[in-house]
Amino acid sequence: MELFVCIKRVPDSAAKIRVAADGKGIDPAGVEHVISPYDEIALEKAVQIKEAAGAGAVTVICFGPAEATKEIRQALAMGADKAIHLKDPGGARGPLGVARVLADNIRARKFDAILFGRQSIDGDNSAVGIIVAQLLGLPVVSLVTKLELKDGVGVAHREAEGGTEVVEVKLPAVFTAQRGLAEPRYPSIKGIMMAKKKPVEEILAPAPSGRLEIEKLSPPAERAAGKIVGEGKAAVPALVKLLRQEAKVI
Amino acid sequence: MPYEAPDFYGIDELLTEDERMIRDAVRGWVEDRVLPVISEHYLNGTFPTDLIPEMAELGLLGAGIDGYGCPGLGAVAYGLILQELERGDSGIRSFASVQGSLVMWPIRHYGSEEQRKRWLPALHKGEAIGCFGLTEPDHGSDPGGMETRAVKQGDRYVLNGAKMWITNGSMADVAVVWAKLDGVVRGFLVEKGTPGFLQRSMGKKFSLRASDTSELVLQDVAVPLGNLMPGVEGLRGPLNCLTQARAGIAWGVCGAAMACYDEARRYALQRTQFGKPIGQFQIIQGKLVEALAEITKMQLLNLRMGRIKEGGKVTPQQVSLAKRNGCHFALEIARTCRQILGANGITAEYQVMRHMCNLESVITYEGTHDIHTLILGHAITGLDAFR
Question: What is the pTM of this model?
Answer without folding.
Answer: 0.91
